[in-house]
Amino acid sequence: AAGNIMLLSVSVWSGASESTRILFHWLSGLIALPAVVYSGAVFFVSAWRSVRRGQTNMDVPISIGVLTAFGLSLYETFTHGAHAYFDAAVMLLFFLLIGRTLDHVMRERAMTAVRGLQHMMARSALVIDDSGGERRIPVDQIEPGMIVLIAAGERAPLNASVLEGASDLDLSLVSGESRPVAARVGDTLWAGALNLTGPLKAVVRAPARESFLADMLRMMEAAEQGRSSYRRIADRAAQLYAPAVHVLALLTLIGWWALAGDPHRAITIAVAVLIITCPCALGLAVPMAHIAAARRLFDAGVLVKDGAALERLAEIDTAIFDKTGTLTLPEPQLVEADERVEGALAQASALARYSAHPNARALAAQIVPALLSFEQVREYPGEGVEAVLEGVRYRLGRPDWALANPGSADDEDAVVFSGAGGLLARFRFEQRLRPGAEEAVAEFARLGVATEIVSGDHDEPVHALARALALRSYARLTPAQKVERLKALAATGHRTLMVGDGLNDAPALRAAHASMAAADATDIGRAAADFVFLRPSLLAAPETLITARVTAQRVRQNIALAVAYNILAVPLAVAGLVTPLIAAIAMSASSLLVVANTLRPVRSLVRG
Q1: Which of 146-150, 292-296, 408-412 has the highest average model confidence (pLDDT)?
Q2: Beta partners for 417?
Q3: What are the angstrom distances between the C-alpha of 189 and each of 116, 158, 179, 204?
Q4: Tell me, what's the pLDDT at 606?
Q5: Which residues, 6 or more positions from 280, have their beta carbon under 8 angstroms from its beta carbon?
Q6: Which stretches does DSSP call E strand in 111-262?
């Protein structure tokens, strides 16, 4: 619409006859009407809602300027006047919608966390009735006291207690436990816990609305509401900018009407003031700065989901790290393999391939297996895996289960491979530091950011890692306690960056001032975070902070340029030396100026 109206306007400026001018004004009005009504609706609705609440925002002067320019142009067209400003009204919307669209794209990326958790919650479960029959019913119809069957590889649908069976549970998503936890009769199952090795019968202890996942969802929704109250730079600027523009345009209208006695001229000059002071530069340059920074971070291996997160990240003074999967790699690593009998390592690796236990997977991945055909393979949940080969019974698992004399393993945390009860090989696993973890902590310190660990894991591994990295640490924290720690820091004036990975970190990721997750984090963890770094190194975290601070600096520069433009242009408009069309061109030029300033640091950052 802007392009077509501008073509018609060029013909009028070139000296078209009166009849041609009138025709082209009518054609311009017909093109502008649907464009203003449809494309301007987003601004008009926002402005009306703000005014109804007795407030003002950037959309109020935009709406007044567009509608006044359009209304005055219609009047000129009906009265066969010499000038119409349909081009100015539609050009305003064109430039403003570019900024609005860029901003909308980034905001949409940040709205997936809660929806993702809702998709993760089980829709149904297998219930065992009093007669022993099985039937699958919706989770919200399951009541406390019912018995559910949880197969290996499934997640617990509700909070429950183990009634029958034994298995290993992966609680890394739920509590941050770095090692699988044995589940026995009477143990508690939290909704979301992954059953690894054996089927379990469990009695439901709480309805779906009171499950662990439901509590997580409520915490994330509460954190999302807190995020929505954050006022962005453009919104804060609108508190002063919009009222000042309204007062200035009104005073210009009254002054010219009183001095010249010509209401038409007074309205035309007031419209020019509204257009030339329109916050188009601010509305375009802020999301442009965020998009440029997002592109630079993408090239560096970091995804940005929300432009407002860049502003929040630039303000942080404390970085909070989860341990398992964040400071350390998510999967256990084989760090020691002690072969007591030749060929035992290859045999152990071959047997490990029959188990889904994380330690077994790590062993099978690190050592080349032998070509063996084990018989009578059986996995004992919480203990290990057993098989027979050429009449000899082999076991891979806990020392007190696999060995006839467990003391020969020397380390109760070790995994051993035995034959006929004798020790053949000994393995030790641990979670290694994520690449760049030490450097990232040091870089945060250089940037003046305090660092600490909050983890659901046991005291010993958490505090040992904290001592190695010189961090303050908190262990055995539930998801709710992690959120409380963030709230305690916020209450003392600190603004935090949360770096996590699991489902148990999701509420904290949403509650923090800004948040980040690794690409190998859970789907919910990635969805809840503002930033996702794709490369393995944790150095992405301080590098993103540096980029955010530079971006915030450029946004402030853009606002200063917009203010300087108004200081120069507004007096000319108030003096009646600028028509609405010239005001629209000047407004567009100011937008191009701040966009050029936005792109400048991006290029220099990429070269650096």
Answers
A1: 146-150
A2: 396, 425
A3: 22, 8, 16, 9
A4: 32
A5: 92, 95, 96, 99, 587, 588, 590, 591
A6: 124-128, 134-138, 147-150, 160-164, 167-170, 181-183, 188-189, 194-195, 200-204
**Rounded CA gap, 383 and 360, in Å?**
12
pLDDT digits (tens, 9 = 90+) for 188-208: 887 877 888 778 889 988 887
Q: Based on the residue annotation, tell me whether 322 is a catalytic residue of this protein.
A: yes
Q: What are the C-alpha distances in Å from 435 to residues 62, 138, 299, 570?
A: 49, 43, 19, 54
Higher pLDDT, 422 or 172: 422
Q: Which helix (H) or strand (E) holds 499?
A: strand 496-500
Torsion, Cα of 589, 590, 591, 595 (10° steps):
100
Measured in whole angstroms, the distance separating CA 174 from the mean position of its chain's CA atoms is 20
- Confirm if 506 and 525 have CB atoms less than 8 A apart: yes
Q: Are 337 and 429 in contact (CB under 8 A)?
A: no
- Only one residue has tokens 């203003």, namely 36
Q: How far is CA 444 from the centre of its chain?
A: 21
Most confident of 157-161, 293-297, 385-389, 596-600: 385-389
CA-to-CA distance for 398 and 382, rounded, in angstroms?
8
Distances (CA, A) of 295 to 73, 101, 289, 415, 569: 41, 16, 10, 46, 33
Burial of 313 by CB count in 10 Å (0-12 exposed, 13-18 middle, 19+ buried)?
Answer: buried
Confidence label for 417 from pLDDT (cuts 50, 70 and 90): very high
Q: What is the pLDDT of residues 430-439, one digit of tens each?
A: 878 888 999 9
| Distance, C-alpha 345 to centroid of its chain | 43
**What is the C-alpha to C-alpha distance for residues 597 and 407, in angstroms, rounded to an integer?**
70
pLDDT in the model for residue 310: 86
Distance CA 166, CA 188 (A): 12
Q: Which residues of 29-49 are buried (b: 16+ CB within 10 A; e: fewer)?
A: bebbeebbeebbeebbebbee
43, 96 in Cβ contact below 8 A?
yes
Structure tokens at 491: 């209450």
Specify the 3-state DSSP secondary structure of 534. coil
Instruction: Give the chain's largest Cα–Cα span.
Output: 112
Task: Give residue for tokens 């309204």.
Answer: 246
Checking if the pLDDT of 605 tops 70, the result is no
Q: Tokens representing 122?
A: 């089980």
Of the candidates 103, 170, 322, 501, the residue annotated as catalytic is 322
Q: Which of 478, 483, 506, 481 is nearest to 496 (CA)?
A: 483
For residue 425, report the phi and psi dihedrals to the nearest 5 degrees.
-160, 155
Q: How far apart are CA 564 and CA 599, in angstroms?
A: 19
Residue 122: its pLDDT value, please? 66
Closest residue by Cα to residue 397 from 378, 376, 373, 369: 378
pLDDT tens by residue, 375-409: 888 888 778 899 999 889 999 998 888 888 876 55
Among 25-34, 410-419, 521-530, the range of highest mean pLDDT: 25-34
Measured distance CA(4)–CA(24) in Å, rounded = 11
Alpha-carbon distances, residue 546 vs 106, 240, 274, 442 (angstroms): 20, 29, 37, 14
